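Backbone-to-sequence.
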């Protein structure tokens, strides 16, 4: 029952964030909107910022973290961008929040896991050796670029379609990795 209640509280909060800024949303407002007694909120979250973090980690995690071991990264990227497109208004409002509960910092955690998996799979599948420093550089660079691009795309007035964006991102990531393989003599 607890996960269902959390999802209901989160859905109420997301709905309210489509109508008003975070600063205007109180726990009372969330719970009244959800038709759940106010005290129930505190059984799951200490405050609305923890709820916001839970939404980021739960929903983005469903697309990234939960699929890393059995879904190809290109499909994860497509599904993630479709989710963002479907929830664009919520994330546009969420992008105005700065600090420890910023969307970018939560997204970066998940994207780092995705990029790390891509790098590790390439190393394993191609049998190449990369220094720990270069692996760290690749992880930071590619993750940062992907987060920056994603947040920019979410804020565009007329963004490219999910298909256009994911096609370009997949080509860019693949070309980057193929360039590395070519340079190291693992791609002829």
């Amino acid at each position: 029952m607890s996960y269902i209640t959390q999802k209901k509280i989160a859905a109420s909060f997301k709905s309210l964030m489509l109508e008003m800024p975070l600063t205007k949303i109180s726990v009372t407002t969330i719970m009244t909107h959800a038709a759940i007694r106010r005290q129930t909120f505190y059984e799951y979250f200490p405050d609305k910022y923890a709820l916001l973090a839970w939404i980021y980690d739960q929903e983005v995690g469903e697309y990234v973290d939960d699929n890393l071991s059995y879904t190809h990264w290109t499909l994860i990227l497509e599904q993630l961008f479709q989710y963002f497109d479907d929830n664009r208004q919520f994330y546009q409002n969420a992008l105005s929040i700065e600090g420890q509960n910023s969307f970018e910092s939560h997204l970066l955690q998940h994207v780092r896991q995705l990029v790390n998996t891509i790098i590790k799979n390439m190393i394993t599948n191609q049998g190449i050796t990369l220094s720990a420093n270069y692996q760290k550089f690749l992880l930071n660079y590619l993750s940062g670029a992907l987060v920056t691009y994603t947040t920019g795309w979410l804020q565009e007035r007329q963004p490219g379609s999910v298909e256009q964006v994911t096609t370009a991102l997949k080509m860019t990531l693949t070309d980057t990795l193929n360039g590395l393989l070519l340079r190291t003599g693992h791609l002829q």
